[in-house]
## 1
Amino acid sequence: MKFTEFPYSRPDEKETLDRLDAFKAQLEQAEDYESFLNTFKDYDNFMAAIDSLFNIAYVRHTIDTRDEFYTAEADYFDQIRPVLDNKQSEITKVIFDSKFAEQLRNDLPSTWFLKHEMALKTIAPEIVDDLKEENKLASDYQKLIASAQIEFDGRVFTLAGLEEKMNDTDRSVRERAHKAYWGWFAEHEEAIGEIYDKLVKLRTKIARKMGHENYIPFGYLRMSRLDYDRNDVENYRRNVLKDVVPAAMELYKAQAARLGYPEPSLPVWDEKIKFESGNPRPAFESDVLVQHAFDMYKELSPETGVFFQQMVDNEMLDLESKAGKAAGGYCTSFATYKTPFIFANFNRTQHDAEVLTHEAGHAFQAWSSRDIFPADCVWPTMESAEIDSMSMEFFTWPWMEGFFDKDAEKYHYTHLEGTVQFLPYGVLVDHFQHEVFENPEWTNDERMACWRRLEKQYLPQKDYTGVDFLERGGWWMRQPHIFLDPFYYIDYTLAQVAALQFWSRLQRNDPEAFNDYLAICRAGGTKSFVELIRLANLKVPFEDGCLEQTMNDVRAWVKDWNEKHPDMR
């Protein structure tokens, strides 16, 4: 069935809550384990159906935020989901307290119990109204960002659409486009800052109601950090500062030299320009890229070929940027139909190819795990899910000529370079949020100053000459995760370290690399992050020195690439 054919009807709040109460009573009154397990399965299927309806409404809303019907449906779910979450927590307590709980542990992955133990600590009747308000504020941010209409060179662009001009081969166009882009944020700084201030204070209030000093430990519970804590993350940050920041600065220095600058300090409009001759760009239109992606996945493995054919046949991709479409990209899934969905905004940059590898990595994992029971163990936790997407970017390297034609080698360099340079940025986003939630009474100016201070530590190459908004520390306002999913960002970097290890194994022609990747995709959410890392035969990122060898491998590859392409400018 195609996505456009999926039926949708709003689930009635009272009927849904009544049904959940009935499940709760049946679980409490079960006289034998078989009855208890069958009720659990029915409950799991029911919630999978509700979740599918939510995702249908959400996807259709983000495809066109001007659609009043699905905007109303998305708003409706924002309001009822905290109520449903609270009711589900009551059912989870019944399951945990049941005399059949130990038997159930034999039939369910251990991660189900770990995640739900944490979830029980993040929901309570006294915070339901606060969670509704949190959802509303997050939606307010999305709507504000999606509403951007920026006049540039006789055309009107969304923020996502303007990025094509921000990567133009003409430096003067890039400069003007960046100033237009960041000028919009400067004009809306007060509104964005006010939304975030309300979110910080509200999330702090929620955490304190749940017995925490601040939001940080509560945020870790919400993110289902199953087998690592704040101390592990802090140690990981130290590893990044020690091993990655110096390697990234070497890459920035080489980039600056290619662009004609004497120091590794690049104007913001040149930072994403990796070569003076221009960044690699897709050589074909989007329909050709999708067809090539299908051919690529068919050749990569039988499993990926079947998966992508189904995605195309069932129209489970919405890729083009257009007016009213929400910014960014994501992958979600519909449990009832056992299929993932990819949402993106193509902008004629290398991002377009990465969508068809990164988001397809998420989608392939969800497809590989689609039959796992219970349904909420199909997806792994956030940082684990990113291993699947980021690793897929590297497994598809041999097919990049079909996206970039003669620029394929240039893409390989910029992709690896960008991967390394991203790690300090991703850690910065996480570090910033720790600082903010430790100081919830900060003003917007103080948050801006904090960002800029940390930015100089992790990204010392930054040069914001001519863009006062960024010099004052405003970059973070464009990072939606900070608003929508607090602490969901270190995940990308942890996963990137794992993906780089897969890349390293591919350089050594390790015949087991893809099989190990398949194993973690099939495992889905049945294992924790560290367990998945070990299942894939990779190094755990929290261990001292875990990044040293990887960065040495990167340096060796870059040296070899430069020797092979001495004239690549």
## 2
Amino acid sequence: MPAIVVGAGLAGLAAALRLAEARPVIVLAKRELGDAATALAQGGIVGVLGSDDSVDAHVQDTIEAGAGLVDASTAQGISAASADAIAWLVEQGVPFTPDRDGPLGLHLTREGGHGVRRIAHAADATGHAIHQTLLAKVLAHPHITVRPHCMAIDLITHRHLGEGAAPGCYGVYVLDQCSGAVETLASDAVVLATGGVGKVYRYTSNPDTATGDGIAMAWRAGCRIANMEFIQFHPTCLYHGQDRRFLITEALRGEGAVLRLPPGIGGDPVGARFMAAHDARAELAPRDIVARAIDFEMKKHGLDHVLLDATALGDAFLREHFPTIHARCETLGIDIAREPIPVVPAAHYTCGGIVANLAGRTDLAGLYAVGEAACTGLHGANRLASNSLLECVVTGRACANDVLARSPGASPPLPGWDDSRAMDADERVVVSHNWDELRLLMWNYVGIVRSTRRLKRALARITLLRGEIDEYYARFHVDRDALELRNLTDCAELVVRSALQRPESRGLHSSLDHPQALPVALPTVLPGRQPI
């Protein structure tokens, strides 16, 4: 019986490659194989490699960025595995930027919140380089079956099997988008590597796949969900009419780029720098601080964007170290060596998710969660830059090790998918309208800065939307758009309910009604959804 990996990003591919050493694996990707958040990651992956660095130093930086909510033992475990993770990626053939004098022959850069240079990278397209390398390995592996355009609908659990069934996950219902058929796939090991919930917001750096599918499925199956109020907004997403999803990596700030207001604001003809007024670390402050600072300055001055000025770095340096950004901006008419880049914050990373340990174990036997879909405690109230790719590799492989250490279980007969009373959809406008309304609602009411009144309004409207979506889901044959909307609505509710349960400002959760942090930091844990 094959293990099933839902998602073809870094965490899923790392898990699949390790699992395939001992058993067959099915990897499900709901769109094209390249449509993963991993492929968009620019900055790099943490590796505690240098003589000036240590696991304790990295853990301390992680804890400080996480605003008191980081699980220290989790951070210690993942940091301690970072050198092995980098070495494994090198062994797979990932073309990291070299430096003959650097540890492992790699060039290390620095990003916001890090005390030293510890970020291994492949120029400014690290995620793409890693993803393409591992994807090629997965596609060539004889024990791995990759199925694009196959979307998981729901987990098959003991709830589907009736009384007497042992609690656990027994498989997954899957929509084959090419045929329209719903399949019943049995497995004693289902790995959710489905990424975050960025598409719940109107403006996001995430790919279209980031609709919180795994988080929503696990919640509906009864798993606990933690810390969903902590949505990281990347401070510097390109602001341009032709491209509002392209990230400008913070590694650019790590190398000396600075944030400015547009020329003339406040009487400065060049454009005044403003980060020093918000944090002593200025442009190297953690992402939540930089994003709030930009949001504050935009609202204060009535701006649509601010400027990231990298002109002091010079054309040759920018072309060598940031070729992707240089080329993309050039196609849009921006010469980053001679003019600043217009940027704006955008929803970027989900710090919360399915409660899981370092091996990916969830509340349900046989169900694992890794990568951005999971909440291991590593990120706390704010993720430290470049810890995400590291977590994907470490937990993906640890999850596979845990699966392989167990004896494969027999699968009981599973009920098939029943759509005998469903019809073909006759009014697609319901899905498109509710999709747009939900994302705008979340952007306006549950964004970088929140208030209790806004959150309650958001929850009231989400409740109404849920009724419309549940009615649609019950009446019509499923398709990807309806399934994604259903999942996004579940995740929006989880974000709002989590935010309402946190009467303080901490990390990525900034409340106008509760501007101070509480003396003791506690996670927000929501129980799984009860059967209807």
## 3
Amino acid sequence: MISKNLMRTGRLAAAIALAFSGAASAAGSALPDDTLDEVIVTAQKRSERLIDVPISMAAITERAMRDAGASQLGEVLGTVPGVSLVDSGSGSQNINIRGINSVYGNSPVGYYLDELPFTYLGNTQLPDVRMYDVQRVELLRGPQGTLYGDGSLGGTIRVLTNDPDLEKLQFGADLEAGSTRGGTTSNTEQAMLNLPLKENTIAARLVASHEDLGGWVDNAANGDKNQNGRTADTFRGKLRFAVNDRLDIVLSGWHTKEHVLGDSTSLPNYTSIDPVTDNTTQYDLYAATVRYKFDSVDLVSASSKMSYNNDANIGDYFGFGPFNTARQIDVFSQEVRLASTGSGRFRWTSGVAYRSLKQQTNLAIPAFGITQDQYHKSDSYAIFGEATWSFTEKLDLTAGLRYFKDDQQFREPVAPALLALIRQRNPTFTGTTNPSFHSVNPKVNLAYHFSPDWLGYATVAKGFRTGLAQPVISLQSAILSNPPISIPIGIDPETLWSYEVGTKGQFAEGMVTLEADVFYNNWKNLQTVIFPAPRIGALINGGPARTQGVEVALGLRPISGLLLQITGSLVDAKYTSDVAGSSVRKGSSIVDVPKSQFAASGMYRWPMSDGLTGFARAELQHTSPRSGTILGVSNSDSITAVNARFGVEAASWAVYVSAENLTNEDGAVGISVGGNSGVARLRPRTLGIQFSYKHQ
């Protein structure tokens, strides 16, 4: 046994030397126990080994998420290089990739739940999806304008849930309880049932979860203790029809409702004097995915519909008394695509896509009898294609192109006196605008396979984020400011050209995985914000800017059962010219982007008696301060968080104990705006126990 371990260690050292001397790779593939060649992904809308996909991406599998004890999306992304997020505990989060960040406008990150594009207008926040019974999360870094279109400026996140199994009756359940230092207790219950209804033909899969997360922030203004509790309920169902060997149909529905009081923003002693927001979010998703296998081509039709509702009763932040905002979003999307099958020298994907989005926003300030409605509509269309040609067994060339068109309407009733005031500066303004935007997004990629398990690549790609109309309250505030500020009635789209070189590989019989890349992004027409009045933002196009950096991930398996992983990234994101009317100057950092991130983890499994396996995992995550370039915005703190997890596993059940934020890190995770007393912080040290059962 000793000699075998010495031999393995020798091979490991040699592999590390080989890797660092010429095998630097594309960061962030997989978490514990998943090797590059074992993970199958569909990032290029066809099934491939992760190690064969010549882009910088992470594929985090269901087992890896369970090992890490991740129950929410934010916990999954914490160790992926180049990815930065701030979770304020309000039910949504702000995510940026490679320094491509925005505090206003649409999200610069594409986001998909299975085949459904999860889209807002004028909101950068993304939902905090629960990870129970999720097959994997794919995170694509860099602009994905060819296959995923508008919004995938910095990258794309795909949350892929498990399809029904046609053969096996399966049942699973997780029960979890936790206690937060200085706060109340929490509990989570989750269950899954996979039910074959007709042998090898029809099956259903049902998933349900309930989360009651206790609060820990005390409100010094009203005396409320542990004010920031929240509940979340998720129900998901899929019905699969395998009609024959060629035709496969999956129907799915997803319901989530989350209620949040306040959020995790506070002073370092976990107190706050800010008013409490009572926030309820609900979304219902319905989808039909039809796959048909021709002899050499796969046809996929993905239809989806989403209804999203958010109702927020907001405290007296502005001095006008409490007010309410309500948002209703309805989205229908349809994509039809064809993809070649097999591993021939020529492989391709092409398709068409359509998305219709209707968004209604209502603002009410009862103390003043004020109500304001906004209606926003977007109809977008796309034609796309991507093809790979293998010149030799080792050298591949991929080229892609997407044409995108977005026809919008923004309508907001305006009182006659206010309309006359706005027309003094914008004579054609009526309260209704009909902007239209379009873009052609190319991509070229060159990949070289040094061996079946080692790939190098270079990519040039363009990303695009559509424009938006200006809210009336912003136009009014700009005119009434002293002195008056000139702002447009709408902002133009952003564009980004990305240049990347990277490699990914595994060595020494899978004992070493190494990935790294370097990138440069030339970002133009940035959609940014100025403040004509306190807390009231106005959209402008600023910039240009550039982001550049390096991402690295190293995995080591020196002995059986042990995995060590180190990931890290350096991102330099700066404006390259002054932004008129703002505090941004040439050389200013992009807001809310940390310059460095680092994570290290160790996981060990060992055999115990009577069919039991021991499990231990520890993890450290470090993030440097985030920039607060915009006037009135201050930097966050440097954050270092430590987590640990221990357990006993059997064939069908497992028990784990965990400690999150073991050192009780209480620094400011996010930037602060306007000198608010509350800043987003990590949840204090939380101890938990989890019981998991699965029959299959």
## 4
Amino acid sequence: MTRVNTTQTNFTAGELSPDLYGRSDLRAYVNGAATLRNVFLRPTGGVSRRDGLRHIASLPGRARLIAFEFNTEQSYLLVFTDQRMDVYLDGAYAFHCVAPWEEWHLPQLSWAQMADTLLVVHPETAPRRITRASHTSWTISVWDYPNDGHRYYEPYYRFAHPLISLTPSDVVGSVTLTASSAVFSANHVGTRLLVRGKPVSISGYTSGTQVSATIHEEIENAYATRDWVEQALSPAHGYARSVTFHKNRLVIGGSRDVPHHIWMSQVGDLFNFDTGEGLDDEAISFDLLSDQLNAIRAVFSASELQVFTSGAEWVVSGDPLTPATVAAIRQTRIGTLGPHCVPPRRVDGATLFVGATGRDLREYLFTDMEQAYQAADLALLARHLIQDPVDMDYDPVRRLLHVVMADGTLATMTNYRAERITAWTLHETDGEIHAVAEVGGDVFVAVERQNGVGLEKFDADTPLDAALPGSDTTPRQTWSGLSHLNGRTVRVLADGADAGTAVVASGSVTLDAPASAVVIGLPFTHEIAPLPPAISGGRGGGPGTLIRLIRATFRLRDTAALWLDTGDGARAQSFQSLGGHAVFDQPPTPVSGDLSIRALGWQRDPMAPLWRVVQDAPLPCTILSVTTEVKVTD
């Protein structure tokens, strides 16, 4: 018999894909785990039971969450549901109003903020600006372009074939415009053209080749001309796909009918897209041209303008950025997931985006060695957790990137590039998460549960999901305000102690004993399991090698409960050796230190973990490291 001691000092590789169970030669294998569910992985290497989800409000349906950072002291959460916008400040409701987006619009919303204004675009609706006047005063309006009478300085584009001409019936005033081929539709009514550089408004539709219009400034003659362009963003050709601010310009990345075009406003005049004579401060307009169609998914402002398309990643540069110096250079050929919008996020100088396959998360970063951008896959070792992301946001306080999946799970990556830490865990709840946003240090999610959709946030003081805390100076048994959990079996934390389960009826629960402070919500289970042991015996190890766990020593920090399974079912462990003690009807005291557990029995399955932590008790649990002592057959 051979006795072996191994120590896993950290979990900084996160949960690894089962495809890697044979790769014990990898550095990640030493610091990885087979299962990390419902835990937060700290950048320092330990794992802790995740925070619970505190119930904030019930929502009328599926939602999109957008952070609005007004200043360092005022951070708002904007909640968009079907034709409604709700505003929350510090987690409390502040305002609501009618919004133009229906529920089916929400996945494709794109936005950018500057000062007190948020710009929101969707390829099927006119772009809007949301302006804050006070906590309880917000307006949503269609973009206003500067104009000189009837000439609007908005984006224009030639949609029709270059050989198609227009013939006006007169040179000014009410006219009939006749096209040499069908180019018009009923949606053109109310849109604008420039014919020979003069502003024209379409007032009526006759056929695909003929419309009624008004020429506002006299043109040279009424002959047929190919010198005409259309309003770029309109009901006829769709609206903007993505938007950002870059070097004091407003940037529009693609539209419904021109997905590969970029418009940049004039410098300092954010809604003026007049290209004029091509002077340095005038607007810029160009196509992304290459050997493939580049449908723009997102435009992102960094040191250079980054453009994420369906098939490649680009940078748009110029020093200074002017119509004469602008250059678009393709960097990588990964592609970005679409058509729904998963906004790229800036983390430690790199831009993180979801690849076109929906199975990878890429780090878009300029490298000195290559003198070019690279797009490393940060999900390569945890591919099984990444499946069709629909939303993501970054929590800079805990260095956690939260990625919402189409199946309602939430994959979280602990990212600390300076220490080469890229570690994934998975969060599951009794319901489906479909949106996430980080606001002022708080992480909010929209969750669809059995009783409807709710707005919730991660909260260390509520260790249950869809949970509400309550307190009273006089202990009582009945607690109300739980209508969002009607009919559900909930877990109760009473005066800090686990009080078991109760059923919510008419929005209330009745406890077995009075309590002064409670947390009531849905339970969740966290699980931690190591990778299959990579230990060789006298016969070389592998299949057929018998392994017996003698002892496992867990280094704990501020842990009030530890349920451990060493092969015979999960059991609560006693902390008496660490100075912990239990007092009847009192909350357990969190302890820190080394807890050793002895185990019995040989293990014949080389793929099974030697131990597992499986715990639904709503009490804190943090594991910093694990040392195992095992015997293997010679």
